[in-house]
Design a protein that fits this description.
This protein has 252 residues and is α/β, with parallel strands linked by helices. It has 2 domains: 197 residues, Rossmann fold (3-Layer(aba) Sandwich); 33 residues, no CATH class. 44% of the residues lie in helices and 14% in strands. It contains 8 helices and 7 strands; from the N terminus they run βαβαβαβαβαβαααβ. A 7-stranded parallel beta sheet has the order 3-2-1-4-5-6-7, sandwiched between helices. Helix 1 packs across helix 8, helix 3 runs parallel beside helix 4 and helix 4 runs parallel beside helix 5. The longest helix is centred in the middle third of the chain and has 28 residues. Bound molecules: nicotinamide-adenine-dinucleotide. The site of nicotinamide-adenine-dinucleotide has 28 residues, from helix 1 and helix 6. Nicotinamide-adenine-dinucleotide binds next to helix 1 and helix 6.
Length: 252
C-alpha cells in the first residue's frame, strides 16, 4: 500500500512575507510555517512582527519599510537563502480622481507599487539561486474598476502588470504569480471603516459583504491557502497567472 504524501508541503523552504505582521500577511506566515517552511516576517511594525514570530516555530521578525531601499537591502544582507517572496504589504485609499490629492497618490504608488520593484530587485539574486517563487498580492481592484478607488485601482493594476512582466523575463528561473482577492476581513478593512464610516459601521459591513455575490467577505486564511499552493511543487506549471479569490465578484 503506498503512503499518501501530504499535499502542498514546503519543508526546507525559506519565505519572506512583507507586511507579514497583520491580516493576509499574518495568515500567510502562519500557513507557510504549518506547511513546513521557515519564515521571515518583514513589517514596518516590528513589535507586531516580533509578537507573531514568538508564537510560531521557525519564524523571525525583521523591521522593513518596503518603500526604503536601505531598509530592504539590510534585510536581504541577513538572508542566507530565499525560496519564496510574498509581496503583500499594501495600503488603501478611498476617493474618485477629483478627491485624490497628489501626496496621497504618490504615497499609494510608493507603498503598493514601488515596493514590489524595490523588494523583488533586492531579493532577486537569492531567488534566482533557488528558482524561487514570488507571490504578489494584487486585488480585484487591479482587474475591474471599483467605485471611489481611483488610486488603489491604479496601484493594483500595476501589480498585475509587474507580475506578468517578470514572468516573461524569467520563465525558467522564477515563478511569479498574483493573487487578486475581493474584500477580505482584516485590520485593513477595520481601519477603512474607522476612518471613513465610524458612525455607520454595521451598514457598511453589510455593504462590504454584499460586494461579493457569495454574500460575505473573504477570510485571510483563505488567501493564505492560495499562497501556500502557489509556492508548492504542485503549482510548478504556474507562472504569470492571476488568481481571483473574490466570492464571485469578477465573474459578473
Ligand atoms: P493589513 O493592514 O491588515 O496589513 C498590512 C501590513 O502591511 C501591516 O502589518 C502593516 O504594518 C504593513 N505595512 C504597511 N506599510 C508598510 C511598509 N511601508 N513597509 C512594510 N510594511 C508595511 O492589510 P491586509 O488586508 O492584510 O492587506 C494585505 C495586502 O492585501 C495589501 O496589499 C492589500 O492591498 C491586499 N488586499 C487586501 C484586501 C482586503 O480586503 N483586506 C483585498 C484585496 C487585496
Amino acid at each position: 500500500m503506498s503512503e499518501a504524501k501530504e499535499a502542498f508541503r514546503l519543508d526546507g523552504k525559506h519565505a519572506l512575507v512583507t507586511g507579514g505582521a497583520s491580516g493576509i500577511g499574518e495568515a500567510t506566515c502562519r500557513e507557510l510555517v504549518r506547511a513546513g517552511a521557515s519564515v521571515t516576517i518583514a513589517d514596518i511594525n516590528l513589535a507586531k512582527a516580533q509578537q507573531l514570530a514568538s508564537a510560531l516555530p521557525h519564524a523571525q521578525a525583521v523591521q522593513m519599510d518596503v518603500t526604503r531601499r536601505a531598509s530592504i537591502e539590510a534585510v536581504a544582507a541577513q538572508l542566507a537563502r530565499l525560496d519564496i517572496l510574498v509581496n503583500n504589504a499594501g495600503i488603501a485609499h478611498v476617493g474618485n480622481i477629483a478627491h485624490v490629492e497628489e501626496n496621497d497618490f504618490d504615497r499609494l504608488m510608493e507603498v503598493n507599487v514601488k515596493s514590489v520593484y524595490l523588494v523583488t530587485r533586492a531579493m532577486l539574486p537569492l531567488l534566482l539561486e533557488r528558482r524561487g517563487s514570488i507571490v504578489n498580492i494584487g486585488s480585484v481592484a487591479g482587474l475591474v474598476g471599483v467605485k471611489q478607488r481611483f488610486a488603489y485601482c491604479t496601484t493594483k493594476g500595476a501589480v498585475v502588470a509587474m507580475t506578468r512582466q517578470l514572468a516573461v523575463d524569467y520563465p525558467k528561473e522564477l515563478r511569479v504569480n498574483c493573487i487578486c482577492p475581493g474584500t477580505v476581513y482584516t485590520p485593513f478593512v477595520e481601519g477603512y471603516l474607522e476612518k471613513y464610516h465610524a458612525h455607520e459601521k454595521e451598514t457598511m459591513i453589510a455593504e462590504l459583504n454584499a460586494r461579493q455575490p457569495i454574500g460575505r467577505m473573504g477570510k485571510p486564511e483563505e488567501v493564505a491557502s492560495m499562497v501556500r499552493y502557489l509556492c508548492s511543487d504542485e503549482a510548478e506549471f504556474m507562472t504569470g497567472s492571476l488568481l481571483t479569490i473574490d466570492g464571485g465578484w469578477t465573474a459578473a
